[in-house]
Design a protein that fits this description.
alpha+beta, OB fold (Dihydrolipoamide Acetyltransferase, E2P), 2 domains, 5-stranded mixed β-barrel
């Protein structure tokens, strides 16, 4: 290294720092900052390692499991993938299209009380959605979509 110029030393040092940062992301730091997408069966299979970890959980709203308290904005329902069921608790008004059997994605953490505390609830809709036609209100478009997907 004695015969190297200052620029060469700087480039080598920058490369070492970049490799070190990449290694840290690959072997430790990335796992703590990534939100994984799981199904209820996959989350339950994790056992105790699934507790208190940020997760996106996807499945369908189990029929007749929705409990909505409009006074406290408290929403509870069971999310299922057919192989596993997870009770979900969310605060706030559910999306307009939310209903039994609907595909949803929730983001949050699975607690030791076996309840998934959701801070975000998204409704999965079919690819048949289209924006309202000129002169058609959004509410009319929602009615059409629900009739088509509920048939």
């Amino acid at each position: 290294m004695a015969g190297m110029s200052g620029r060469s030393r700087w480039l080598i040092a920058a490369a070492v720092v970049m490799i070190g940062a990449f290694g840290w992301l690959l072997y430790g730091g990335l796992d703590k900052n990534v939100v994984f997408f799981l199904t209820p069966k996959e989350l339950l299979a994790k056992g105790t390692s699934g507790y208190e970890v940020p997760v996106r959980l996807g499945g369908q709203v189990k029929p007749k499991s929705v409990q909505w308290d409009s006074t406290s904005s408290d929403l509870r329902f069971v999310l299922t993938d057919g192989a596993g069921d997870v009770t979900v608790h969310a605060k706030g008004m559910p999306p307009q299209m939310f209903r039994d059997g609907m595909g949803v994605i929730v983001e949050g953490r699975y607690g030791r009380d076996n309840v998934f505390q959701s801070n975000s609830l998204m409704v999965k809709h079919s690819n048949e959605y289209h924006p309202p036609k000129p002169g058609e209100s959004p509410q009319e478009a929602y009615k059409t979509l629900i009739k088509v997907s509920g048939a």
